[in-house]
Write a structure and sequence with these properties.
- With 790 residues, the protein is α/β, with parallel strands linked by helices.
- It folds into four domains: 168 residues, Chitobiase/beta-hexosaminidase domain 2-like (Chitobiase, domain 2); 348 residues, Alpha-Beta Barrel (TIM Barrel); 78 residues, Immunoglobulin-like (Sandwich), CATH 2.60.40; 148 residues, Jelly Rolls (Sandwich).
- 26% of the residues lie in helices and 26% in strands.
- The protein has 22 helices and 37 strands.
- The chain is globular and about 95 Å long.
Amino acid sequence: MFKSKKIVAAIACLLIAGNAVAARISSSSLDSVPSLSVVPKPVSLTPGDGHFLFSPTTTITVNDERLKPVAELFADFFVKPSGIDLPVSLGDASAPIQIILVPAAQFGSDKSEAYRLQVTADRVHIVAPSEKGAFYALQTLRQLLPPQVESTTPVNYVRWDVPAVTVEDEPRFPYRGMHLDVARSFMPAGFVKRYIDLLAFHKLNYFHWHLTDDQGWRIPIDAYPLLTEKSAWRDKTVVGHTLDRNTEYDNNPTGGFYTKAEIRDIVAYAAQRQITVIPEIDIPGHGSTIIAAYPEFGCEQQAAAADTFVQPNFGIFPAVLCPTEKTFQMLDTVFTEVAALFPGKYIHVGGDEVLKTQWEQSSFANALMKDKGLKNYHELQSYFVARVGETLARLNRKMIGWNEILDGGVADDATIMSWQGIKGGIAAANLGHDAIMTPFGYTYFDFFQSDSVDEPMAIHGMTTLAKAYSYDPMPEELAGTDKAHHILGAQGQLWTEYQTQPRKVEYMVLPRMSALAEVTWTAQGNKDWADYAARLPDLFARYDAMGVVASRSVYTPTINAERLGRGEKANYRITLNAETARTTIRYTTDGSQPNQQSSIYKKPFKVNGGTVLRARAQDNVSGEFYPESRLRLLSHKAVGAEVEILTEFNASDDPSPAEQLTDGISHQDQIYQPSDWVIFYGDSADMVVDLGEPTSVQSVSFTFDAGKHRQLYPPSSVEIFVSSDNSQWNSIATLQESHLLDARDKVRVEFPAENARYVKIVAGNRFTYKSNETGEHRKVPLHIDELVIE
């Protein structure tokens, strides 16, 4: 009777038509997919002969009650796309799928997450020392099934089979995490679960939930109801990037918080998927939300302020909790309630980006320092964090903090997240602290994924998929030493200043989350970019079946231009690169968008100045085009000329800023990256261009605003000088502020032809902006691109 019902259900599923998910996964997207494609890459994966076929008679057996929830979770997942129910029983030796819990000694005491998976034509056999290992084995089995298995609705006409294979596997690091900031942009509870599902798919085991910050408080505290009644909401949000400019707001109220029931449900949901949730309550800085609700927890100036509010801006703000006994009593209560919701061993206390100005101005803080013998405000921060550590110790929890909590000393059992590079992790390990590596250059997934003009808004920086994949969490200085065990693993970060919707979050973390998974799971010697890239098509097919938005930025070509010659006769050797071999690069040199008929890149080629080069990668299987890259190459008399910069500017290297000013490459229509610009901080930008010989010149122009994701300011004045000897100067043209205020992105100064070897440009910079962090007026940095002389 039972089997008959299963057969009827299976036939009914095969008759369902018009499935939306099946339509999303075109047949071409599944072509040429490796039959054995698993991410993260296992320790070993050996193909066998034949396939195991799931059918309405397939059942699962376990040898231990503790394994039943793991097996049932897989069965619940599998029935949705396949219509095949997989009953789970205890001790049925004849079941075709067997999951066996064995003594830990069979794998080793430190290998609780290991597993062995063997698939033959007639059975699936899983052996593991724990529920975790069994869960990860089933995730591997999941990835060996057809990609359509990821659909949450029935899929028609799919043969649900798995290739015969033997997998031996275990993770490299015990900590494999992903972070999600819900303070800047609140994410619904349903999406948080979806995010946890993505972690589980990638065998990640820690979810770092950033619940509080200056822009929102997302967790209810019964003893302090105003934290959610007032501080879970803000009246407006700044539009676009806030750095170096006056701000505009959307005037749309936004916010939200999770009920305690929702939090308990999410924690339990994660636990089912072998994921520990780590809550972050960020103290003592990033405290606007606490002080907005309860000003008495700020120092004197804050407690008396009438304008303390939940921040509508992004950045680092002065709001800092005052180290009073009533503040520590409040935090004791807060963390007690937090610990009741989160049973995991870790609680994150933030501790980053603490502006100490208000402590410096506080008579109480200064008296406390004197009384406690604290030498500086870093030690005061250490004292503050240590007091919170006493609460966590009482609650039987371990503290995690960002690497700034090392400043001034830290509690012996604190774990450090090293985000400002890797030095914090190294220092922590050498002091005997555990460390989790989170360096922003590799693990911050709110950075751009490519320099394509098609990329959505991001905070800054560039972390390509290849760069994320290249990271090794084990610092060279510690590898093989007795301190190496303190490096627990690594974590990816997703801050949500500009990722305001779940779909945007998905785009930013996928597929970089998969790179992080392989970085933390797979042995360094077993990693290989080409092999990983070959597995990406299968991974993308699975993302598509899930209905998530995954970036294809990995297929964006990069354009490299080598300048040949100088001046107006300069040309450029162009090299186009793709990070994977799956695509063909098509390009144009006339400014038009590449299409099916455009030239195919085969080898480096030359172009003249005045060329707008555009390139797109086309999928070799589906024919789909991926995000575009552009490069604008210039022709003018100063290309390759030497430049002397006379005033304060950014000191970036390779190439030097002076070389960038005449390299013949314009960045006016590209995504803003600070390294592409020479940035001046003083009252003027003074530059001298040496044309090499007397030359007739009649105009000078330069770009000051990229116009893509950043609003940059024009100079307040421009004056052009010429000289034959770089000593005696003649002023030949001036533009005043009234002419420059309407400039859109470029300054051009024309004048009667002059014969000169040296041209000096003096760009005034008197503009200021009101800092959204401090309210003070600051000098606007002046950005300058190519100095074009004609």
